[in-house]
UniProtKB/TrEMBL annotation:
The gene is MC1R. This is Melanocyte-stimulating hormone receptor. PANTHER family: G-PROTEIN COUPLED RECEPTOR. The keyword Membrane applies. Receptor for MSH (alpha, beta and gamma) and ACTH. The activity of this receptor is mediated by G proteins which activate adenylate cyclase. The keyword Nucleus does not apply.
Amino acid sequence: YFICCLAVSDLLVSVSNVLETTVMLLLEAGAMATRAAVVQQLDDIIDVLICGAMVSSLCFLGAIAVDRYISIFYALRYHNIVTLPRAWRAISTIWVASVLSSTLFIAYYNHTAVLLCLVSFFVAMLVLMAVLYVHMLARACQHARGIARLHKRQRPAHQSFGLKGAATLTTLLGVFFLCWGPFFLHLSLMVLCPQHPICGCVFKN
């Protein structure tokens, strides 16, 4: 369910961006003539969709990390902790919170505090996932050492397992950062140096 919700969130981000770009191109080409107030309302709706989908996507990535963490460290109690009603409550809470927060963010987007909140949220989710996955990798390596001792395997087998785990972890967090990093770098620069020529160059690109 968490993975499906993550897929829906990412799909909404893509569709919203395509919709926004299409509307902008139609307006610039003069193919869609409408009043400025209607354009502003449409822009706000699309921005709320993009922002809400982005927040929910980050939340579901965090929820998946927490779910995996519980399944490893509390394996025997997992089905008592992560029940279907709790999962549905978590999913509902994430969607409602994403819509409400995105509405507030777009309504007050000119305030520096809003941009700082978004950047802080991204950093917090990145740190949360890094801590949880590193802890899970450490547990997996510890488990591999225990199995190696039982079977009297040589050390290189454990090193190979550790390298594979580290590579998987690096890929996971690296892709996450590459996907969302540019957007939040853009927000950070809007707060730190909105008038600087170099930052202006980044904004254009």
